[in-house]
C-alpha cells in the first residue's frame, strides 16, 4: 500500500487516534492511581490519629493511666470523630481487651473484632511491641486497601497496644466512577471511529474500483472515454462530472480531428489523383483521335474498347477514393473468422493459379463458440485487398498465406489477421508511407488498396501494420478488438 494514498492516510489517522486514546487511557489510569494513593494516605493519617487518640484517652496526668477511663470507653470516645475507623486495645497475654466502631453504619453497634482481620491485627500488634513504636500495615485486595495502625500502650500494660483499622474502597466512589466513564468513552470513541473509518474506506474503495472498472472497460466506437455514473460521494461525483465533461470535449475534438484528417487527406490526394486521372484521359484522347483520322471501322472499334477500359480504370480509381475519404458505418455482428478466410481465399484462387501462385489458409487456434464482433463485408474487402496485393507481388511459384489468431495484449483481447507472401518484400524507402494513398511500387497500381485496409481497421477501433521480413517477403497484420463494445 502506498503511503501517499488516501487509504493509507486514513489508516494512519485511525492509528494516531488509537494511540491518542491509549495515551489518554494511560493518563486516566495514572490519575486514578494517584487518587487511590491519596485515599490510602488519608486513611493512614486517620488511622494514626485514631491510634494517638486512644493513647491520649488512656493517659492521665504525668503520663500515667487515667483510672476513671476504661479501655472500652476510651476507644469509643477516641474514634467517635473519625468516620470509618475501628480499633481497640490489645495485649499479648489476653488478646483483645477493648473494641469499638462508633461510626459503623450497620443496624446496631458493632462490638466484636472482625474475624477475617484478627490474624492481621494480632500480627501488627506483635510487631509494634517488638519494635516499640507505631507500625502501619497495608493489605490491598481487589476492591479495597486495608490500613492497620498499632501503637504501644505502656500506660495500660507492658504488653498492651492500641490499634486502629480503616478500609479504603479503591474501586468504588467518584474516582472509580470517573475512571469507568473515561474508559467507556474511550472505548466508544475507538470502536466508533474504527467502524466509521472502516465503512468509509470500504465504500470509498468500492466506488474507486467501480470508476476504475468503468474507465478500463472497452467503449463504443463513438466514444473516447466512457460515460461514468454518479457514485453518491460528493467529492468523487465532482471528479466524475469533470471526467464526463472532458470525455465530451475529447469526443468533439476527435470528430473534428477526424474530419480535418479526411479533408487534409483529400487535399494531399488531389495532386496524385490529377496525375492518375490524367494518364487515362490522355490515352483515351489519343485513341479517339487516331480512330477519327483513320476511318477504319475495325480500328475505331479497338479504340472504343481501349477507351472503355480506361474509363473503367478511372471509375475504379474514383470509387476507391470515395471509399477512402467517406466515413465508414460499421455494422458489427459475431463473425466466424475461419469461414471468412476460406471464402476470401477461394475468390482469388483462379487469379493466383494463372500467376503460378498458391493461396492457403493456415490453421489457427480460434475458439469455436466465441466469435469476434466485426463488419463481415468490410473485413472481407480488406482481406481481398491484402490477398490481391500478395498475389501481385509474388513471383511464379510463390505462396500467399492467410492466418488468424486471438491474443491478449495489455489486458485487451484482440483478433490478429495476417496475410503474408513470399515476394521481394516492401522497398525500405516505401515502408514509412506504405499505408498512404497512392503509395505503390507497381506502375499499374493505384496505391489505394492498403490505405483502404488501414481505414477499415481503424473504423473497427484497430489498426493495420507491416511486419518487415528481410528476404522473406512481406506480412501485413490487422489488429482488431475482439469485442469492443
UniProtKB/TrEMBL annotation:
One Pfam family cited in the UniProt record for this chain: HisKA
Membrane topology: Multi-pass membrane protein
Regions crossing the membrane: 179-202
Subcellular location as annotated: Cell membrane
Catalysed reactions, semicolon-separated: ATP + protein L-histidine = ADP + protein N-phospho-L-histidine
Enzyme Commission no: 2.7.13.3
Annotated Gene3D superfamilies: 1.10.287.130, Histidine kinase-like ATPase, C-terminal domain (3.30.565.10)
Domain of life: Bacteria
Domain Histidine kinase: from-to ranges: 272-484
Stored PROSITE patterns: HIS_KIN, PROKAR_LIPOPROTEIN
InterPro entries cross-referenced by the UniProt entry: 2C_sensor_his_kinase, HATPase_C_sf, HATPase_dom, His_kinase_dom, HisK_dim/P_dom, HisK_dim/P_sf, Sig_transdc_His_kin-like_C
Protein name stated in the entry: histidine kinase
Record organism: Methylobacterium aerolatum
Phylogenetic lineage: Bacteria, Pseudomonadati, Pseudomonadota, Alphaproteobacteria, Hyphomicrobiales
Amino acid at each position: 500500500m502506498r503511503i501517499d494514498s488516501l487509504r493509507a492516510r486514513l489508516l494512519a489517522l485511525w492509528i494516531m487516534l488509537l494511540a491518542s486514546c491509549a495515551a489518554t487511557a494511560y493518563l486516566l489510569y495514572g490519575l486514578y492511581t494517584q487518587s487511590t494513593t491519596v485515599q490510602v494516605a488519608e486513611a493512614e493519617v486517620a488511622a494514626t490519629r485514631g491510634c494517638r487518640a486512644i493513647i491520649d484517652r488512656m493517659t492521665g496526668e504525668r503520663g500515667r493511666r487515667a483510672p476513671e477511663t476504661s479501655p472500652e470507653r476510651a476507644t469509643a470516645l477516641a474514634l467517635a470523630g473519625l468516620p470509618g475507623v475501628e480499633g481497640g486495645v490489645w495485649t499479648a497475654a489476653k488478646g483483645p481487651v477493648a473494641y469499638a466502631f462508633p461510626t459503623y453504619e450497620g443496624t446496631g453497634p458493632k462490638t466484636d473484632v472482625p474475624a477475617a482481620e484478627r490474624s492481621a491485627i494480632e500480627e501488627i500488634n506483635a510487631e509494634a511491641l517488638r519494635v516499640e513504636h507505631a507500625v502501619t500495615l497495608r493489605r490491598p485486595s481487589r476492591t479495597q486497601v486495608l490500613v492497620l495502625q498499632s501503637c504501644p500502650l505502656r500506660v495500660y500494660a507492658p504488653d498492651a497496644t492500641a490499634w486502629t483499622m480503616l478500609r479504603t474502597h479503591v474501586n468504588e466512589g467518584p474516582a472509580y466512577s470517573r475512571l469507568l466513564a473515561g474508559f467507556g468513552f474511550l472505548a466508544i470513541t475507538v470502536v466508533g471511529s474504527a467502524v466509521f473509518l472502516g465503512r468509509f474506506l470500504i465504500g470509498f474503495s468500492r466506488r474507486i474500483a467501480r470508476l476504475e472498472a468503468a474507465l478500463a472497460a472497452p467503449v463504443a466506437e463513438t466514444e473516447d472515454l466512457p460515460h461514468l455514473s454518479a457514485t453518491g460521494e460528493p467529492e468523487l461525483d465532482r471528479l466524475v462530472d469533470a471526467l464526463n465533461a472532458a470525455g465530451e470535449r475529447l469526443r468533439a475534438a476527435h470528430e473534428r480531428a477526424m474530419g480535418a484528417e479526411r479533408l487534409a487527406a483529400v487535399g494531399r490526394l488531389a495532386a496524385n489523383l490529377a496525375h492518375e486521372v490524367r494518364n487515362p484521359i490522355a490515352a483515351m484522347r489519343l485513341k479517339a483521335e487516331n480512330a477519327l483520322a483513320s476511318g477504319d471501322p475495325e480500328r475505331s472499334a479497338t479504340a472504343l474498347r481501349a477507351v472503355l477500359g480506361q474509363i473503367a480504370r478511372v471509375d475504379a480509381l474514383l470509387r476507391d477514393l470515395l471509399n477512402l475519404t467517406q466515413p465508414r458505418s460499421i455494422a458489427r455482428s459475431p463473425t466466424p473468422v475461419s469461414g471468412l478466410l476460406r471464402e476470401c481465399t477461394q475468390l482469388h484462387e483462379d487469379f493466383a493459379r494463372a500467376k503460378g501462385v498458391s493461396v492457403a489458409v493456415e490453421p489457427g487456434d480460434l475458439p469455436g463458440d466465441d466469435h469476434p464482433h466485426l463488419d463481415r463485408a468490410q473485413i472481407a474487402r480488406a482481406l481481398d485487398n491484402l490477398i490481391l496485393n500478395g498475389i501481385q507481388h509474388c513471383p511464379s511459384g510463390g505462396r500467399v498465406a492467410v492466418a488468424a489468431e486471438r491474443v491478449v495484449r495489455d489486458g485487451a483481447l484482440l483478433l490478429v489477421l495476417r496475410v503474408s507472401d513470399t515476394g521481394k518484400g516492401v522497398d525500405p524507402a516505401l515502408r514509412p508511407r506504405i499505408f498512404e494513398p497512392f503509395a505503390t511500387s507497381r506502375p499499374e497500381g493505384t496505391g489505394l488498396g492498403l490505405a483502404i485496409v488501414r481505414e477499415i481497421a481503424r473504423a473497427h477501433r484497430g489498426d493495420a501494420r507491416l511486419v518487415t521480413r528481410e528476404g522473406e517477403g512481406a506480412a501485413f497484420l490487422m489488429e482488431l478488438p475482439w469485442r469492443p463494445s
